Automatic annotation (TrEMBL):
This is Light harvesting protein. It comes from Calcidiscus leptoporus. InterPro entries: Chloro_AB-bd_pln, Chloroa_b-bind. It is found in: Plastid, Chloroplast. Keywords: Chlorophyll, Chloroplast, Chromophore, Photosynthesis, Plastid. One of its GO terms (molecular function) is chlorophyll binding. Signal peptide: none annotated. Chlorophyll a binds at S53, E68, H71, E179, N182, R184. SUPFAM superfamilies: Chlorophyll a-b binding protein. Transmembrane segments: none annotated.
Amino acid sequence: MISFVVAAAAFNAPVARFTRVTHAAASVQMSVAEMEGTGPETGNKVFDPLGLSKIASEETLAWYRAAELKHSRVAMAAVTGWAWVSSGGPLFPGYLSAEQGVTFESLGRHGYEAWAAVPESGKFQIIGVVGILELLQEASVKPHYTKGGVPGKVPLLWDPLGFSKKLPADQMARKRTAELKNGRLAMIGVMSLVSGHYFPGSVPLLPDSM
């Protein structure tokens, strides 16, 4: 649901190319005309129908990109999990709450029904862990992405073995673009799942049972 609420704003937000400056007072440097994430699907132009890049500061544009990447990753995980469960993939064994007798299997295979079946204490734990990870991420990014850092970089969670450091620059650029495009598609997918749930039949290829 969080992804649905923010997806539109994150998708509309332009994705800028950022580079670090070497002097002590680091600031965000960008070229709106050469933003990463453009392609045939956007007419090889920056997708910015609301003109946000014209009214936002450089720090705000950096925040937009970080938000887009963050919600893209959440949406990709959500769509993958939803598709896995809905298509009959095996569920986690055992109990979600042994005290209340709630097993993972008992949650069912419908996203909304599964969330509703999670005990309240479990919901608070999930939300709490997400909040803690968010705070740790923001605190660990140095310099912060609004102060010259790299938007989307998560030191505590992303690439702990350093595989990306061994990739050439052109390959990294292609992977960043692929992540952006796949993330945008996933956000559209999440919006389709939400729309199909609240408005049955609104998504022609999506069963009403989703």
